[in-house]
Amino acid sequence: MTAACAGHRSLKARLAAGERLYGALLRLPAETLVEMAGVAGLDYVVIDCEHGPADMALLQHHLTAAAAQGIDVLVRVGTAEPALALRCLDLGAAGLIHPHVDSAQDARRAVASSHYPPLGTRGFATYSRAGRFGTVSAADHLAASQDTLVVAMVETERACAAAGDIAGTRGVDAVLVGPADLAADCSFPGQDVIDGLVASAHRATREAGRAVMTIVPGVEDARAAERAGAQLVLYNMAHVLMDTFRSLAVPGPSDGPGRPS
Questions:
Q1: Taking a C-beta distance cutoff of 8 angstroms, is the pair 76, 49 a contact?
Q2: What is the dihedral of CA 75, 78, 81, 85, to 10 degrees?
Q3: For residue 100, which of 75, 76, 73, 74 has the smallest C-alpha distance?
Q4: How does pLDDT run across 64-117, given as a tens digit for each residue?
Q5: CA 66: distance to chain centroid?
Q6: How far apart are CA 207 and CA 201, in angstroms?
Q7: What letter would DSSP give residue 132?
Q8: d(CA 203, CA 209)
Q9: CB 205 within 8 A of CB 167
Q10: Which end of the chain has fewer beta carbons closer than 10 Å to its terminal beta carbon, N or C?
Q11: Is the peptide bond before 260 cis (omega within 30 degrees of 0)?
């Protein structure tokens, strides 16, 4: 976000005001889905460059589509990828989601790659898309960059135990528990074990005064996440779309004039 977008309230400002924000997680290149999310009234989209394509040209197309609809974009980068973080922010991402943050030290590294000095170590440039191609002053660009949202993902049992320290790290705005990696780290225990670890991490995050982000597969789970105190609700669009497609693929008879066998 830049000075030219000064009338637009950042995700960080909206979280600070106590708003609950709804987003869509996209793992496939589809800028039309970004546009549709904006038209539908969602607050943000997450472009997944960890488990999805990390193509900068495609990402710029998605960011351009988002800007046209006034919807913010967060990008999930890979683990400890400061160079990718820099490029995503230079293209105009509103913030970053950093996976596999296991400790306060990891959190500090994530923050460092997301912010300019003195808080971070991001390379400074105003001639990028985020700087309106050099048409804003260095001071305005620096001020706008302070609205960059930093989300730390905790995805191991160790990380859940350190969630309070991670969330309390200066510059971390929200914490997202990655349930799939957490289950793998714990050798796929019963769901009650995972639920307990997630609840503990969320509690520590809220006690640190940070926002909880939760990935949900649909509206019913979104309502449950709201009741549990999530401030950033993120719909897993792969799950939503597959559920929709399956509901359309109504089973028919194997023979006869109905659905072809």
A1: yes
A2: 0
A3: 76
A4: 999 999 999 999 999 999 999 999 999 999 999 999 999 999 999 999 999 999
A5: 14
A6: 10
A7: G
A8: 10
A9: yes
A10: C
A11: no
- The two structure tokens encoding residue 55: 């193509």
Place of tokens 């600070």: 16
Q: How much is the pTM?
A: 0.92
Return the structure tokens found at 186: 């714990």
Question: pLDDT (tens digit, 9 = 90+) per residue, 33-48?
Answer: 999 999 999 999 999 9
Q: State both tokens at 57.
A: 């040209």
Catalytic residue list: 51
Tokens of 60: 């710029």
As a whole number of angstroms, the longest Cα–Cα distance in the chain is: 72
Tokens of 146: 């302070």
More confident position, 2 or 43: 43
Residue 122 CB partners (closer than 8 Å, separation 6+): 82, 85, 86, 89, 112, 113, 114, 115, 116, 145
Q: 198 is written with which tokens?
A: 């997630």
Query: Residue 135: helix, strand or coil by DSSP?
Result: coil
Has residue 4 got a pLDDT over 60? no
Q: Is 141 exposed, middle or buried (0-12, 13-18, 19+ CB in 10 A)?
A: buried
